[in-house]
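Weekly structure sync, notes
Attendees: PL (lead), two postdocs, one rotation student
Agenda item 3: pending single-chain targets
PL asked that the sequence for the first pending target be pasted directly into the notes so everyone works from the same version. It is reproduced below exactly as submitted, 294 residues in total.
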Amino acid sequence: MEFIPAKTILSGFETGSVWFGKNYNMNIYKGCSHGCIYCDSRSECYKVEDFDRVRAKADALELLERELKVKRRTGVVGIGAMSDPYNPLEKEYCLTRSALELINKYRYGIAITTKSDLITRDIDLLQSIKSHSPVLVKITITAAKDELCKIIEPHAAASSSRFAVSQEMAGAGIFSGILLMPVLPFLEDNEANIGEIIRLANQHKAKFIYPAFGVTLRQNQRAWYYAKLDEHFPGLKKKYIERFGSAYECRSPRARELWNFFQTECERFGMLYKMEEIINSYKSGYGDCQLTLF
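Predicted structure, written out during the meeting:
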């Protein structure tokens, strides 16, 4: 694996972030090997060349420890926004696991986004962190059926494996749920897919589901996505162009009715789906962890 220069690992402190209550962002890896046809991180604005090749930041753990030591406030560290922290190379290099050990040592919380079942390896560390700080695991699932999942997310764990992760997290007492985004227009935006995801999430003990009924498209990402539509779903690109043109936000034409259906089903199963409720639930009992001073 190639190691690339880095000056920092943690972002600056955010107070009360509306995105799952995180306070810091962290990315140890750059690029991703999942090959998802819709990935926003391919966008030109992020300037990630050769996106499908995973690299790691040089001296990442030394940098992280130095930054964790000097931050005036602890809080929840978010990982997985730009690159899945549980890519296949993580099995060998264990950079994410080592980062969790440091986060535990300095008593920060963690919010992880992943499409990998490798995360179950680190349940012991998540339990240790949970003993003093909030822990949140977000498992991205957009297709209920493995057959569709393997087309749109070809190198990620199958949806069925990700649902199994949810059940294993629940059994270990870890607060976890489903990130249902993006819901691809004309492919996934139907009651059959969304209803089955809700049912399976409930069956596998997920605490919440948080959706986005549509997909964002911009330079590089749009070209990749359209090429994959031509490869796997001939004729669908034309439908996108006719409906969305060059718009950044490609919202499902059925977003409103799907939201009503989604809301009804979540309430029927007792699933959390509002951001404020999710944040309050996983942070419950920890007080104002954001303001703890060393």
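Discussion points:
- Residues 289-294 have pLDDT under 50 and may be disordered.
- The radius of gyration is 19 Å.
Action: rotation student to compare against the earlier draft before next sync.
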